[in-house]
Amino acid sequence: MIVQRDVTPIPAASVHGWDHEADVVIAGYGVAGAAAAVEATAAGADVLVVERTGSWGGAAAMAGGFIYLGGGTALQKACGFEDSAADMATFLNAAMGPGADAERIADYCEGSVEHFDWLVSCGVPFKAEFFGEPGWEPMGDQGLMYSGGENAHPFNTIARPAPRGHVPQMSNKKQGEASAGFMLMKPLVDTATAGGARGLFDVRVQSLVVETDGRVVGIRARQYGSEITVRARRGVVLATGSFAYDDTMVAQYAPRIAGRPAASIEQHDGQGIRMAQALGADLAHMDATEVAIFVDPQQLVRGILVNGRGQRFIAEDTYPGRVGQATLYHQDNVAYLIIDGAAQEAAMASASPQLMMRPPTWVCESVADLEREMGLAPGCLQSTVAAYNDAAERGEDPLLHKKPQWLKPIGSPVGAVDLRDSTGGFTLGGLQTTLDGEVLNVSGQPIAGLYAAGRSASGLAAWGYASGISLGDGSFYGRRAGRRAAKG
């Protein structure tokens, strides 16, 4: 349980001495903070990054490393794929869910190629090799992958599919322990440091310091148990992450994922969001979440996913995060993966590291027996499997349009993997900002001296997601916030 602290703004007149100061003060040294630091130093500003933990990295350094980019990057071209900003925008406007910001999406897509080039110029390595297997991330050091279901129905009917999951090259990866996010963060931090940015660690931000006219001029924080104040001569950038680990905020805004955080870190406690709220900052999409389902995609594509009524409800070869959302929000967190022995063996023999490979909960010789073992209504699963097998024999999936390569009739023995309560998520909402990272108040006006990026802010994702969106818009709009803050 996170204990929420007082975030009441501090009058600048009450500060009788500053412990530290810089032109631009950035709270949080994850991907958004690092990108902001690179650009602010490049713009000639003196930059100080304060970080809650003992080192830089944040959630980004622990992530799989996907950066969602497209429009015809050099990596896409080197791997033989064509893409355009228009196709990318069409996909994102559909995939990011209800309420997606079309203006922000267009802006991001138009700047995507340049952003890739900027990452490369900072030293982020990418290997020009495509990974075409189902998975949460590439098994090796491949640099490109479909990371949002772009080539799955219905998205492949509205825009030309292209893989846009750009992954920094990293050897000897261990999924869930040491993934490619580190190879994104280290070059960015090295670039920021080379530019003159300073880091101050073990600093827990508490509240903003403001002048009488409302302009943000610093932060109050605690370091090693003592209170400190940090002056920002030009601006403060909030890059402190989401609120996924603040129980009170999750219960208030996103109760469906209460008690089930995933793909986040405990420092994501919403502190930066609440600090800005205390100044009247506006919020967006606070109820929106991404949801992971804890099963290997190599299994998903080879079986059929059914709900508590024994009915299929989503194409099994789409983006696994979309499967998780559909399961939690539309099927009461109830799902079963029906898979036969041959398909299970094929999944086990795949290139997957099998971190999420699940053994069947029930195994029977017939679908009728399996249906009874699972406690489903008589005939419901049998009719689903019969219809699926009949169409699969013809290489078709008229119901949900799974790609032909994964269509194979379900045989015997047949099992079911119990996926009830096998989801976990993280929050997507945050502070409302301009495209330059300026934090807006509830009247739609910028709060002078205050900027935000990353999961502290509401970005590209609304009620949809694709792997790489967080690191993508975090770094992209972190750059914008850093440049804008440097202008003062």
What can you tell me about this protein's structure?
This protein is α/β, with parallel strands linked by helices and 488 residues long. The chain is built from 15 helices and 21 strands. Strands 1, 2, 3, 8, 9, 10, 11, 20 and 21 form a 9-stranded mixed β-sheet that branches. It has a 4-stranded mixed β-sheet with strand order 4-7-6-5. Helix 1 links the parallel strand 2 (20-27) and strand 3 (47-51). Helix 1 packs parallel to helix 15 (469-487) and helix 4 (85-95) runs antiparallel to helix 5 (102-110). The radius of gyration is 23 Å and the shape is elongated. 56% of the residues are buried.
Helical coverage, percent range: 25-40%
Q: Uncertain segments of ≥5 residues (pLDDT<50)?
A: none
- Based on CA atoms alone, the radius of gyration comes out at 23 Å
The overall pLDDT, averaged over residues, is: 94
Note the main sheet. 9 strands, mixed
Strand content: 15-25%
Tell me, what's the shape? elongated
The number of strands is 21
Number of separate helices: 15
Q: Look at the helices and sheets and give the structural class.
A: alpha/beta
Distance between the termini: 37 Å
What are the key terms here?
single chain; 488 residues; alpha/beta; four-stranded mixed beta sheet; 15 helices; elongated
Secondary-structure blueprint:
Blueprint: E1 10-11, E2 20-27, H1 31-42, E3 47-51, H2 58-62, E4 67-68, H3 74-78, H4 85-95, H5 102-110, H6 112-121, E5 130-131, E6 144-145, E7 165-166, H7 181-194, E8 198-201, E9 203-210, E10 216-223, E11 226-238, H8 247-253, H9 271-277, E12 283-284, E13 289-293, H10 297-300, E14 304-306, H11 320-330, E15 336-340, H12 341-348, E16 362-364, H13 367-374, H14 380-393, E17 414-418, E18 423-427, E19 430-431, E20 438-440, E21 446-452, H15 469-487
Parallel strand pairs: 1-9, 2-3, 2-11, 3-8, 5-6, 11-21
Antiparallel strand pairs: 4-7, 6-7, 9-10, 10-11, 12-19, 13-18, 14-15, 15-17, 16-17, 20-21
Helix pairs in contact: 1-7, 1-15, 4-5
